[in-house]
Design a protein that fits this description.
The chain is elongated. It is an alpha+beta fold. The protein starts with 18 loop residues before the first helix and ends in a 9-residue tail after the last strand. The longest helix is centred in the middle third of the chain and has 24 residues.
Length: 338
């Protein structure tokens, strides 16, 4: 038999593998593997079959899943169960998950997908901005953590977190600090990423003290809210911190000081033209003392509805003889007099 033998020459007339002939060319263990390949008894035309899809046809989803599985096999193992159960804002959980899967568009990651930008870190000028550098090695991040430690006793990044990937360094933090302290670090990392994007896309300037105030207020309000599924946004004064884009509409309810009562009001405009208002008065413990709501004429605007809600809320506070109140509404343009 020549050196260019065809596969058909190793198949008998009974449509079985010719093992003795195969063994004269190949090692026995390979012959055993070949013998397990099914041979149809009738002649059929060859066709391409994609084994990862039920119908045999290639799909982008199955191809992407194959690449993801191959990539996961190359990364250090990280148990994600703690991440999704951690007492963190959902946006920070998603941020951590993306960082672990190399999904954050850092400058190094953008270059890998052929989006070429200057590679330097925006904070410290390091020659290559990676997720591992930005959150574990950058001087700006380290200074924030040192300031938080001095002011509030926050944990620091363990010395063992000097590995190449965010995923591996995160696991080092969990092993060395435990999950609660790692969650504190995660809040800092999210704000570092938030600040980095503000610097790049809005040319806004920040200092370590501003970020520390943001981090501390965010975590304090998250614990006050007590609901780790709510959408939490920072309620720091945007004029004080220079964060004009932070929306008050997404802020959580913060209780007033003891002895002070908070009045919240709002107006609504439905798709069918109906308009309504509502208000609630609560004490420092979050207990509702008085609530009210009603429909309004359909030709009223939402601003008019909110103003009327404020008016009714003030009348309710006077009726209850409340000595001190804080008025809080979602529309900053609503007038305080009506």
């Amino acid at each position: 038999m020549n050196n260019l033998a065809r596969v058909v020459e190793f198949i008998t007339e009974d449509k079985e593998w010719n093992i003795p002939l195969l063994s004269s060319f190949l090692p026995w263990d390979i012959c055993l593997k070949i013998s397990k390949i099914f041979l149809p008894k009738k002649d059929v035309d060859d066709e391409v079959f994609w084994a990862l899809s039920p119908d045999g046809n290639y799909s982008v989803k199955s191809g992407a899943q194959l690449l993801i599985n191959q990539k996961i096999g190359l990364n250090p193992s990280v148990e994600y169960l703690w991440l999704w159960k951690a007492n963190l804002s959902p946006k920070i959980k998603k941020f951590l998950w993306k960082a672990c899967n190399d999904g954050l568009p850092t400058k190094a990651r953008l270059e890998q997908v052929h989006v070429f930008t200057p590679q330097q870190c925006e904070f410290c000028g390091c020659s290559l901005e990676t997720a591992s550098h930005l959150f574990f090695q950058c001087r700006f991040t380290i200074d924030i953590l040192h300031q938080l430690e001095a002011d509030y006793g926050w944990p620091q990044i363990p010395s063992s977190a000097i590995l190449g990937s965010f995923r591996a360094n995160l696991q080092c933090c969990v092993d060395a600090l435990g999950i609660p302290k790692t969650c504190q670090l995660a809040v800092v990392w999210w704000f570092v990423w938030f600040t980095r994007n503000k610097v790049i896309f809005s040319q806004e300037a920040f200092n370590v003290r501003q970020i520390c105030i943001l981090v501390h207020k965010f975590l304090a309000e998250w614990h006050v809210c007590g609901d780790n599924t709510a959408r939490i946004q920072t309620r720091s004064d945007p004029q004080l911190l220079g964060l004009n884009s932070l929306s008050r509409r997404c802020a959580p309810w913060v209780p007033p000081p003891e002895g002070v009562f908070k009045v919240n009001f709002d107006g609504s405009k439905y798709s069918d033209g109906r308009t309504s208002f509502g208000f609630v008065i609560r004490n420092h413990a979050g207990e509702a003392l008085l609530t009210g709501c009603n429909s309004l004429p359909s030709d009223w605007s939402i601003t008019q509805a909110e103003a009327f809600g404020l008016w009714e809320a003030i009348k309710g506070a006077c009726f209850c003889n409340l000595p001190r109140i804080i008025i809080e509404g979602e529309d900053l343009e609503t007038p305080l007099g009506y």
